[in-house]
Design brief:
Length: about 190
């Protein structure tokens, strides 16, 4: 996919982890970002990771914005309804500029029409034979992660980076099999 003659598209794959922060109506919590991981689709070794409890929250957001602005397209699993809106909310709360419109490809929302199969990243990866596992976390592990302890930060980092690595492989396989619709512009 090319944007202009001679310019290969820069595709940023990313994922966030978040924890409940407060309840704004009964049983509906607000979210706080606990991790962001991002890597260029053509070079997963470029992985950048920011962790709440290790990194300054504002620096996490600014670091992500810098990559987002360099990208021609961003991709992830359920990013248009989950990750991007949560990041924008965090940017608003931090008094930073919000994300601008961006071409996106979402492996959940842009999958071809289907029925009766789960659309989780884990299930799709397993079904398509992707050789990258999702790091499973128990409730006890999530509690540790959300408390931002040293062990919890290590769990969160493994979870968020494994999700990005798995997504890169899943997206490539879905493209090869013709299972993804054309990218769409996300407008905040």
């Amino acid at each position: 996919m090319k944007i202009s003659a001679g310019h290969p598209m820069r595709v940023l794959c990313f994922d966030i982890e978040n924890r409940p922060l407060s309840y704004w109506i009964p049983d509906t919590p607000t979210a706080e970002i606990t991790a962001i991981a991002a890597a260029w689709a053509d070079d997963p070794k470029t992985m950048r990771v920011w962790l709440l409890g290790r990194d300054d929250p504002e620096a996490m957001l600014i670091g992500f914005i810098e990559l987002y602005d360099q990208a021609d397209m961003v991709t992830g699993h359920y990013i248009r309804k989950h990750d991007l809106p949560i990041i924008n909310g965090a940017l608003i709360e931090a008094g930073l500029r919000t994300l601008g419109p961006k071409l996106t490809q979402d492996t959940k929302l842009d999958m071809v029409a289907k029925s009766d199969i789960p659309a989780t990243q884990e299930h799709l990866s397993d079904m398509l034979g992707i050789p990258a596992d999702k790091y499973h976390m128990t409730q006890a592990m999530w509690r540790e992660a959300n408390r931002l302890t040293a062990d919890g930060l290590a769990l969160t980092e493994r979870r968020v980076t494994d999700d990005v690595r798995q997504h890169i492989k899943l997206r490539a396989e879905m493209i090869q099999r013709g299972l993804l619709k054309a990218p769409r512009v996300w407008r905040p």
